[in-house]
Amino acid sequence: MIKTRSENFSSREVEETVCQLDAVSEVAVIALGDPLWVETVTAIVVLRNDQIIDEQTVISHCKSQLASFEVPKKVIFVNSLPRNPSGKILKRNLRELYEQASSGDVISGL
Taking the domain 2-82, which CATH number applies? Predict the structure, then answer.
């Protein structure tokens, strides 16, 4: 569950909306701590081979499909998502990694 201001919602609908974009191969939506919003909706996106898309395109698409509180405030593009041996995306690892990055720590491998 993501908590942003007074709203609680699942990341699934946001992920499904981002995946509607042809350039997107896969996505994980996570919540990062935020002093104003409680949690900031963040989309971690893997693009299809040879595809190019920018953060604003993803955000604009989400604005046209989702409630305003569900729209990602930040989009991060990566080459792959961390998975466990059965293939499940490790969102906890993503949250830890990007919470550290937002706190000013240097993160290698981004």
Answer: 3.30.300.30
User: What's the gap between Cα 104 and its chain centre?
Assistant: 19
First-residue to last-residue Cα distance in the chain: 25
- Provide block-wise average pLDDT over 10 residues at a time, the chain (110 residues): 86 97 98 83 96 97 96 96 97 92 48
Q: Where are the domains of the chain?
A: 2-82
Res 105: pLDDT: 42
Q: What are phi and psi of 53, to 5 degrees?
A: -155, 150
How far apart are the C-alpha atoms of 37 and 18, rounded to whole Å? 21
d(CA 95, CA 81): 12
Cβ-in-10-Å burial (0-12, 13-18, 19+) of 85 comes to: exposed
